[in-house]
Design brief:
196 residues; mainly alpha; Four Helix Bundle (Hemerythrin (Met), subunit A); two-stranded antiparallel ribbon; 2 strands
């Protein structure tokens, strides 16, 4: 099976799981912004969760380990967070019809541009706030409108696909960052027991 087909199948399964999980969550108090079940609320809930995970890690990982990498072949912790964030920004922009000139900044995020923890956190917060505003602006109907696929020239995907793909991508890199935590003998913020 080729990569594009695999990605397409994954995204379709992710959307179904997202909708099913969100529908179940609605019965347990809900995760959307207005408490009513809708595609836009489901996607918004997942989008905000992804941003929250990145912000939590970016604020928490030790300063002296932001440029830690387990092997020379992989991104540093900060680069992982920046990559996931910049990719989310690009997918959110593409949902609005703005195609990137290139994916270079996404694939090779610059620590020269984002030198401090505060700059990284600000980027994450702005990216996910802008994306959340776009999701709310599009609503259910707008999220189902077609836009150009980022991977196949001439192919269309929905705006919902863009946001769910971005969210799945964040979760992939979140998992990688969890490994960085564990290798360093640390517990990720989301895995710690709740303080009462």
């Amino acid at each position: 099976m080729n990569m594009r087909k695999s990605v397409g199948i994954f995204c379709a399964a992710f959307v179904l799981a997202l909708c099913a999980g969100a529908a179940q969550a609605q019965g347990m108090g809900g995760s959307g912004s207005s408490g009513s079940a809708s595609l836009s609320n489901d996607i918004l809930g997942q989008w905000n969760r992804a941003g929250s995970l990145l912000v939590g890690m970016a604020k928490d990982f030790p300063d002296d380990k932001l440029d830690y990498r387990p092997t020379p072949a992989v991104r540093t912790f900060a680069e992982q967070i920046l990559h996931a964030t910049l990719a989310s920004k690009v997918f959110s922009d593409m949902a609005g019809g703005v195609m990137p000139k290139s994916f270079d900044e996404v694939e090779h995020p610059s620590r020269e541009t984002y030198k401090t923890r505060a700059q990284i956190v600000d980027l994450i917060q702005k990216t996910f706030a802008d994306g959340a505003a776009a999701i709310q602006k599009y609503g259910d109907k707008g999220l189902l409108e077609p836009v150009d696929s980022p991977f196949e020239k001439g192919k269309k995907v929905t705006r919902a696909w863009m946001f769910t793909f971005a969210t799945a991508h964040v979760y992939d890199h979140y998992g990688q960052c969890v490994v960085y935590y564990r290798i360093n003998g640390l517990v990720p913020p989301d895995s710690r027991p709740e303080q009462k």
